[in-house]
Structures are given as C-alpha cells and as structure tokens.
Amino acid sequence: MRISEHPILGIPEQKEEVEFTYDGNVMKGLEGEPVAAALKAAGVTIHRYTSRHHSPRGIFCAIGRCTDCVMVVDGMPNVRTCVTPLAAGMDVRTQYGVSVKAEIVYEIEEKGR
Amino acid sequence: MKKNDRSREIGSFQPLPDDDRLICRCEEISKGEIRRAVHDGMFTLTEIRRYLRTGMGLCQGQTCAKLIRDIVAKELGISAGELEHTAARAPMRPIEMRAFANEGKGGELDEKQFGGK
Amino acid sequence: MIRYDLIVIGAGPAGLSAAIEAARSGLQVIVFDENAKPGGQLFKQIHKFFGSKEHKAKIRGFQIGSELLEEAAQAGVEVVLNASVIGLYLDKEITVRIENRLLHYKGDTVIVATGASETMVTFDGWTLPGVIGAGAAQTMMNLHSVQPGKRILMLGSGNVGLVVSFQLLQAGCEVAAIVDAAPRIGGYGVHAAKVARCGVPFFLSHTILRAEGDDWVTGVTIGQVDGNWNTIEGTEKHFDVDAICLAVGLSPMSQLLQMAGCEMEEHPKFGGIVPICDPYGETSIPGLFAAGDVSGIEEASSAMIEGRIAGAAAALRLGYFSENEFALRVAELERALSSLRQGMFAPENKGKKLSVTEEGCPVSEHLLGTGFLTEDEIFRYPGVKKIKGIHPVIECSQNIPCNPCQDACSRKCIKVGERITSLPVVDEEAVCSGCGMCVAACSGQCIFLVDEEFEEDYAAVVIPYEFLPLPRAGEKGIALDRSGKELCHAEVVAVKSLTAFDKTSLLTIKVSKEMSMRARFYKKGVRVG
Lengths: 113, 117, 529
Prior knowledge:
B: mainly alpha; 4 helices; C: alpha/beta; FAD/NAD(P)-binding domain; seven-stranded mixed β-sheet; seven-stranded antiparallel β-sheet; 22% helix
C-alpha cells in the first residue's frame, strides 16, 4: 500500500521506521507520518466504533476536519489520527464510543435508559 | 417566508425510504430524525441543532451543516438560502479544556514557552 | 496580547500571497495555519497548472508552494504552524490555540484565507471506512505516500474528480470508474481525456446507490438517474472496489467571518455562504478581508492573485501604499485575475451548456459524455491539421485560460494569441523541429507529435507519459486509442526525460500509418489477435 516510487514525486523522503502498538499488537510505521497513514499502510481500516450505532469508522477527510478517524492514543481519546504524528512506542487503540472498552459505553447507555 | 413562522402549514411527516440514512456523522442523527424534528416544530437550523445535537459533535458540523440545511429547507418547502444561518462561534476546532484553562498565558511567540508548564 | 499590522489566517495559496504582498509593502505580518505544513492544498497538487506565465502556468502545484514559502521567508513573513485560529472577534482580535495554550492576537488588519471544505453527498453505506473525500485521497498518496486503496471508484467529474483520478493512476491505484449524476463531465475536457485514454470509463447521469461491505468498503453499486434524479430501475452496475472517493464539490470555510459579524450571503455560484466583499476582498467590517476559496470557490491560481490584491488593500488601509501606488499595483493584478476568469469555465458560465467555442467550433458532446474526442471530431479544432513531416497535434477543444504551448515552441508553430482562452492554432507554414517542448508544457497533456512519414508503412506518435515504470526504447507493446481501448501493436522507439520537461516523459511510439491519428496512449504487453 506504500508508494515506493512516484513518477512525479520520486522516492519518498526517508523516515525512520519505528514500532508502535495497535490494540496491543506491535506494528511498524514511519516516524512523523500521521498515525492514520501508518495504520493504512499496515492494512488497518477501522479506527473506531460509534457510540450510538456501534458502526465502524475510518479515515474520511484526512486533514483533521471530520474527526471520524479519532482513536485512543496514549490513553487519550478523540485523538485525530490523520493529523497526529507517529512516534516510537505510541499506544494506539480502537475507540469505542469515547473510550477504549466497548462494555463501558454499553453500560453507560443502559443506565441512561 | 418569515424566519420563524409557526403558523406555516407543512403537512404531516411522511416516511421516506432513506430516512434511516445518517446525516450527522458525529452525533449519528438520521435524515428521518431531522425531518421529523421539523414536523415537531423545529423550523430553524438553530432549533434543530439544539433539539437533535446535529452539528454539535466533535467536528462541529464540518460535513453535515450543508446537508442538514438542504433537508430542512426541502421539508419546509423553501430554498436553502431562505434559512437563517446557524451561529458560528468559538471554538472553531476541537480543543481540550486545558487549553482554555491556559488562555492568555504566555503572550510571546516564544517556542520555549510552549514546551510545558 | 500581541499586535500585528496584519494577521493572515491560513497559509495556503491565498494567505501566503497576501502575506508576501503586505510584508513587501512594509507591514509586519504573521500567518497562522492549523496544519503541520504550510501551503494549504498546493503540496497535494502534483499536476502542472493552467494559465499563463504570470499565473505560474506549467509549474506543478507543489513547486509553486515551495516558491511561495521562499518568497514569504524573504519578505519577512512570520508563519506559525500547528496554530488553530478558533475565534475571530470584534475589533479584529483572534484567539489561537498553539499546543496547549490559547493566545490572543490583534491585527490592525486581518485577512481570512481559510479555504474550503469538501462538500459531501450521502448514500447507503457512506459512513463505512473506505468512503473518503477526494482531498483525503490526495493527502494520503501525495503527502504521505500511502495508496488510499487498490481499486477506487470516483464520484464527481469536476476538475477535482478528474485530477485526483489521474493522480490515483499515477500512484499505482486502479480507477474503476468516474461517476457523476450530471449528464455531462464538469471539469476540463483535457483532464477527462487524460484519464479516458488510460481506460477509465465514465458513467454520467449515474449516482452511487450504495457502498457495500460490513466493516469496510468491498464494493459499490451505481445506477442511472433520470431528469428528476430518480434512479432508473434495472440500470444498477456493481464494481468491486476497496475505496470510494467523493469529489462532489467544495464549500467556503467562512465560519470565522460569520463569527466576526461580517455580512454574509448564500451564493450558489461561489459554492455556499460567503462574505459580501468589495473588489479588493474587504468585508463589511473595515480592515477585515477575505481571499481565496473562503470568498468563493475557484482555482489556486486565482486564489493567489486575490491574496495579492487583499494584501495590497491591507497595505493601503494602513497607509503603507499611497492611493496611486495601490491603483497601479491592483490594476496589474486585476488584469491577471480577469484573464483567468475568461472562457468556457468562467464563473458566469457555471452550469451553462455551451455549444460552440469562441472560435465557433462545435463543442464535442462526445467528449462531455465519455471523456474523449472522436477521430472525426478532432479536425474541427485549429490545433489539428494535416501536415507533412513531424508536427504538433493539439487536441484542445475548449476555451480554457492557458497558453504555455505558445511559449514552448521556439519555431512559432503554435499560436494562442492575446486571449489566453483561445484555442491554440497550429501554423501549417512553420516547421516543427520535433523538440517536444510543447508536449511537455501542455498542462492538459493534449499535445502529441505525429509524423506520418516516419517509415514507409509506419508513423511515429509522441505522447506525454507520467507513469512508472517508464517504458524503454525498443520495447514492444500496445497502442491505445483515446478511450483506452487496445488499438494495434506499437514499438517504443524513443523515451525522452529532460529536465526541461519537468517529469513529463515523452514516449515516441511507432504504429502502422493508418493509426497515427488514433493511437494516443501506450501500454506494455502483447496484443491478442
């Protein structure tokens, strides 16, 4: 999925390969690229599940506007992964509603009813 | 049309096949919910926003504002241009509360100041 | 609170141009941009720009971006990145979020150049991962070197849809189809022709019925619509794709201006809610200006000039320009701007159906419906002549503001003339040297060199080529016609990649003589039959 050489842009700027975790699994990406780009290159398409319909979402605008690609990064929810640079050792997790664990969201909803 | 003409007769809510389609992606509000809100008496975009929370999620209506305008206008039988705009207010982008707590601190554009507390 | 002569919001083509113009006039200028990199959308634009020299024509967008940044630095413009302006208040005070702080700045003048956001359409499944904006596709592939998908369906045949489709092909992705609910292609015919000859089919009067897939896009179904936008039963077509790209339009990101209390209006011609401005971009609030897409959707070329004008107007307001200096400067800029706003795609022609060019040549309905001109149609246009020996064939059939081909030819074979929207005319008397500069200079890639006397039974056709891997001389393959259909055997006899061509390589292919006016693209492989 990565473009190794482009007819107009040539060979992409060399960036250091770093390790990060996605839902606890170790993955590799390029330092400084958006977290979303690293995930896309690794074949991850689902960034979060919504709180109301629990439906999957991923990259939509890629420029930090639509907020569809938010995930829990280093414990912080609602992080726009398309504009957040990847750093070594980052902990990236699928966001369910507004947190990491789906059960919590469901519990809150049950109480609300 | 007068912006807030409550006496206007718009008929009853008629279901449409695409009523389940999501319009506001953040707050997950469907087309049917928006149309129904109009029939519940929400004739302005501001009322719709407060009633349903459309456009009040994380992205602040970046994607759905225009879509909702068109749906509401159609339901009211007017053109989108006749609808009063919703208020645009700060913050224009998602921002953490701690940034607000730091409002006005560090007036100089000195990189060193941004490095922490 | 810090005070500046001028605060510019947005470091895209309009904002940077405004800042440069004002700083050169002596203003102290600061530019805020929410992104990590300046340049707005320019760095995603990898095609050569249209216009003429003064509009930086035939230079690729990202190179224009670099030039602007350099100019800004030289002019002493301060550019602050990762800085989101979250509020614009009375008396031109702004709040900016920089890291975890909220800072206040005040400008004696403020230029809002926040650009546009993508308009979206809805269909069943449009929230599935894999349904993305065209801007997202550009960002992923051109900035981050990651393909947005393997096989993509594009919705929208305006310039954005066409240009991004071509870029997807350049990034090594497959474009399954370009779909548009309108009955005619909305963007430049030359952009459409570029993708059509790569074999991408157009489905006009079609819309997306649904995106398919449980967790992400695995396919899409489109259907034909009638005059009332209702789907015609039995016209459904399915494509296996892993991404759907939406390029249905842009709308001005004018909320900051609205918040400041500018008088606004809903203007379909400008793409949405825009501030009411004077000719120099000044809003109803004195000293508060708007430039670029935020005041009406156009091209980056015009945004840059609008920015310059607003920058000059800010300088005038603060007394850095005399009325006289201002009038002189702006007259020049307005001339440049108005030359861009001519032709068939001029703002006043938006939505109009034009049947003849300024020269009286009939417009090709075929081009508007399928993306390519037919062989019979091309001789209607003044750039296509029957000439002995090698000569340019210019398949330019619409009045668009562009004239680099004229400047490229040292032999004066090509004439556009004073009006840059005129169709290029090939002079039968002038002698073409076969240098290929015009082929590489054409931003629309619609110039070919044809030599019918190349060999006894063979003609040579020179085509612009911007893909990898680059074919090698001696390689045998297949010539494709304007629709991307396989036509005949072809042999690559030369491949030229000069610095002056700026990444557009020139492929000379040898085809049988009768194919000289049909062969317009090349692919590697063996033709069956």
